[in-house]
Write a structure and sequence with these properties.
The protein is 27% helix and 22% strand. The structure holds ligand LR7 and manganese (II) ion. Pfam families: Glycos_transf_2, Ricin_B_lectin.
């Protein structure tokens, strides 16, 4: 009996040992063939939630893609014949891009794989969340919209693509009506179309799309994009790991005239989305220190903000943050609102180098802001910024914004009490926390702004109806004199000039410099907030401290230049006229 018992217990031990060892051996076996490692479900224990870099091509990489020939294939520029140029320029005016060129390029064209080569070797979980790709559009061209749709269908693993949701923001172009409804029928329900009953602008339209979407993840694209090879899994993997992560692809450029597809940058360089204090979106190269925090150069990294158009997020998470502030109208500032909200309220943003998407940058905006804008007084985008700043910034930082954009103080931003209540309810952190821990590199490029000593129109004492005017030109450009706009200004910033306590004279984000030929509007030197200018309130002269000369108006040519200072010469006298918009 005892012997049997002993044997039994030995057998038991043996079996128990085998039960432990066999899986261990199996795991070791799997690891030695690491291309075989696949992911188990997110819900089970012992899961690998990080994608693995493997020797073989990673999963979801396309195999044996047939080479294509034709106009624009391979992302090559497509050059039109001379006799097409007239039509082309008409289309450019109507759509902001050359639709004649686009129409000749296949909606399923090939584009160059612009990823870091290593990207092909990532293995991702097999059970990533299902995604609604949401494309909002207002009066977009036909072939650019459809190329966006086809590229998504062609280059996304179907099991992760719940749907492509097209949301029409009250377009009035014929091709976007019945013809579009007819066309999408070929996608057997995978492409859905819903429409606004009136013009809502892109921001509200996206919030509507998110509510309407049926996927677990919502992923927004502009209506003139082409997604690149295996773009989707790398965007979904971080969200699978943690649903409070927003992921952002790297955005390549598609030329608005030739539709050439160009990588935004090559090699291992990475950029983060930041902003300057007037809330213009900027990008800043990721520091070596930050880059090295990751094991592999193709891994995602954290970014304070994003350009706005292209990103993925867990749908419930987006809605739990209140979607976009419904008080933001049409265009602009929503990228900051969502970014600040995510970071300050406990989430994060990751840029994903292995996901590339091309976007057509237009030369100008081919649409107006519609009725929504007419109800508002002043520049709509600045009003949007003011809402975002007043909701998410601490007082100290609000001052930086108003110093850079003095007009904003006077603008009516509407009611933000719901936004403040949300911030309270979600127990969101301060903007200072965000600056110190997330957006610390903003200061390198855009240090805190000293207060303005003067702001407004600079009028001539000799010819009082004339004011300095940038005429809306881009820097670098010579500055001129033009009829003062005064109260008729209506949000045009080209005559609103500020002189700060450190001698920087600027308009918006640009600065004034002087050379032998005249006074020039230039890019402010990055990382600096000072300048050479000094205004004397008694003599009304504007001195350039380095050249030791004053700005003079040439009576015959209306040209501005530096002259030896002559304090009694009215052509060298200027007054700052601060606006008091009603
Ligand atoms: O009233 C409108 N209703 C719309 O549905 C106006 C526009 N739209 C649609 C439009 O058809 C397009 O599909 O909204 C989308 C974006 O409009 P664009 O393409 O005119 O915007 P943009 O590319 O000039 O502007 C960028 O900033 C915007 C600020 O509100 C949005 O966030 C855009 O999505 C954003 N685009 C990108 O981020 C692409 C990459 C740019 C960079 C860097
Ligand atoms: Mn766009």
């Amino acid at each position: 009996m005892r012997i049997v018992q002993l044997r039994k217990s030995r057998l038991f031990k043996l079996v128990a040992a085998a039960l432990c060892v066999i899986p261990l051996l199996y795991i070791l076996f799997l690891q030695s063939n690491h291309e075989n490692i696949k992911f188990s479900a997110f819900s089970s224990k012992n899961v690998k939630t990080k994608p693995q870099l493997v020797n073989e091509l990673g999963n979801f990489e396309p195999q044996n893609v047939a080479e294509r020939t034709g106009p624009g294939e391979g992302g090559k520029p497509h050059i039109l014949r001379d006799d097409q140029q007239n039509d082309a320029s008409q289309m450019l005016t109507e759509f902001g891009m050359n639709m004649v060129c686009s129409d000749e390029i296949s909606v399923s064209r090939s584009i160059p794989d612009t990823r870091i080569p290593e990207c092909k070797h990532w293995n991702y979980p097999e059970d990533l969340p299902k995604t609604s790709v949401i494309i909002v559009f207002h009066n977009e061209g036909w072939s650019t919209l459809l190329r966006t749709v086809h590229s998504v269908i062609n280059r996304s693993p179907p099991q992760f693509l719940k749907e492509v949701l097209l949301v029409d923001d009250f377009s009035n172009k014929e091709h976007l009506k019945g013809k579009l409804e007819q066309y999408i029928m070929r996608f057997d329900g995978k492409v859905r179309l819903v429409r606004n009953k009136e013009r809502e602008g892109l921001i509200r339209t996206r919030s509507y799309g998110a509510k309407e979407a049926r996927g677990d993840v919502i992923l927004f694209l502009d209506a003139h994009c082409e997604v690149n090879v295996n773009w989707l899994p790398p965007l979904l993997a971080p969200i699978y790991r943690d649903k409070t992560i927003m992921t952002v692809p790297v955005i390549d450029g598609i030329d608005f005239k030739t539709f050439e597809y160009r990588p935004v940058y090559q090699g291992g360089h990475h950029y983060r989305g930041i902003f300057e204090w007037g809330m213009l979106y900027k990008e800043n190269e990721l520091s070596q220190k930050e880059a090295k925090k990751r094991e592999h150069n193709s891994e995602p990294y954290k970014s304070p903000t994003h350009a706005g158009g292209l990103f993925a997020m867990n749908r419930d998470y987006f809605l739990s943050l209140g979607a976009y502030d419904p008080g933001l109208l049409v265009w602009g500032g929503e990228n900051f609102e969502l970014s600040f909200k995510i970071w300050q309220c406990g989430g994060s943003i990751e840029w994903v180098p292995c996901s590339r998407v091309g976007h057509v940058y237009r030369s100008f905006m081919p649409y107006n802001f519609g009725k929504l804008a007419q109800k508002k007084k002043g520049p709509l985008v600045t009003i949007n910024y003011k809402r975002v700043v007043e909701t998410w910034f601490d007082d100290k930082f609000k001052e930086y914004f108003y110093t850079r954009e003095p007009l904003a103080r006077y603008l009516d931003m509407g009611d933000i009490s719901d936004q403040l209540a949300l911030k309270e309810r979600l127990k969101c952190k301060s903007f200072e926390w965000f600056m110190d821990n997330v957006a610390y590199d903003v200061y390198d490029k855009f240090p805190a702004l000293p207060p303005n000593l003067h702001w407004g129109e600079i009028g001539s004492v000799a010819l009082p109806s004339l004011c300095w005017d940038t005429l809306g030109q881009d820097a670098p450009a010579f500055i001129s004199i033009y009829e003062c706009m005064g109260d008729n200004n209506n949000g045009d910033l080209s005559q609103l000039i500020r002189l700060n306590a450190k001698g920087q004279l600027g308009v918006g984000e640009r600065c004034f410099e002087a050379d032998t030929q005249g006074i020039k509007l230039v890019f402010c030197r990055l990382g600096t907030v000072d300048g050479p200018w000094e205004y004397d309130e008694i003599s009304h002269t504007l001195l350039h401290r380095i050249h030791k000369k004053c700005v003079a108006l040439h009576p015959q040519t209306s040209h501005l230049s530096l002259m030896p200072c002559d304090t009694v010469n009215t052509y060298q006298q200027w007054t700052f006229k601060e606006l008091q918009p009603k």
